[in-house]
Amino acid sequence: AGFLAQRMERLTVPATIAMAQRARTLRAKGEKVLSLALGEPDFATPPAVIEAAHRAALEGQTKYPPVDGTPALKAAIARKFARENALDYTPAEIMVSNGGKQVIFNAFMATVQPGDEVVIPRPYWVSYPLIVQMFGGTPVYADCHEADDFRLTAAALEAAITPRTKWLVLNFPNNPTGGTMGQADLEAVAGVLRRHPHVHVLSDEIYEHLLYDGLRHVSLAAVAPDLRHRILTLNGVSKAYAMTGWRVGYVGGPVALIRAMTAIQGSATSGICSIAQAAAAAALDGPADIIAAMCAAYARRREMVVSTLRTIPGLTCAMPHGAFYAYPGIAGCMGRVSAGGHRLRTDEDFAIALLMEQKVAVVHGSAFGQGPYLRLSYATGDDVLKEACTRLARFVEGLH
Ligand code: PLP
Hints:
By secondary structure, this protein is α/β, with parallel strands linked by helices. The chain has 13 helices and twelve strands.
């Protein structure tokens, strides 16, 4: 037996990180790489939010915070849930974590043991199965399809549930597909959940504000208030307010579970940076037009990217209704050979050849559990996007 714990064998490096690393290596060699690989807003954090952090630090908010979040931020989160999601979480039902990611980590550490299953719609954000597996749980995938705009259907969910299912993970708007779930979709999911009272739901709504085509986000717990005691509503400031580096996420859910998650967090981190929490409170209480301006830019970029992708022979692309990702299908390119002589057997071959030959970084769909697809993030400048699309089209034209 080696020194490292067995659980480390299950913790592989996500392909998203590996692809970013490849791009960095090329850049270090002086190549001009265009990256559509990152799941991160390119905007700066709003100045008013930064000023709130500055003020908090000067005012002495520099001591250990309460483990589950400062009263001021928890109050702002309660207002946010009430105002934007029609959810009435009390402060005892809310906790703040180091990004939404630590919410997931806390929740699964508190509940998942060997033998437990967690239903994850596929394609998925890689962290869900990685964290489940870390605690010895088994991910069970429910497939979503391009033809359904990558929505989870009641039938796919029903088929994935067993007596060992502990959780269903929902993520809408979705990373990596940009698909989302509307009221009717959520009602269908709730109908299945009512037949399986042992299943809890982690509803990851961190992209809620990034929605297009006039769609309005509805929370699962608001659609099915009778299931509220089985739902964790996850959110955070990373995506909506361009605050990925501040590391503030939060969750609303049943008190007993929140208490268990708080106990874990107390041992792990003693709570979240007090200054970042002050900034997050200012963001949540700030004017809504901050988000609207960023959203308008994403919407414009989405049009540009998707309409270009759809003109490229061999590519298909469902219209992503939310988040900042497009998820084009590249089945028409498989088996062909690139201008640079790379045979494209898989979507990973495609992504690597595209990076080598055209210096465009994307992530292959099989990294998210479903290929042959690519995930393109359009959270980047219009000029970069335009040029990247041109190079992608050139790459596909060069296939033989
Ligand atoms: N959920 C989804 C679907 C994400 O894509 C991300 C970030 O990439 C997160 C949660 C977590 O974000 P953070 O930890 O920055 O709050």
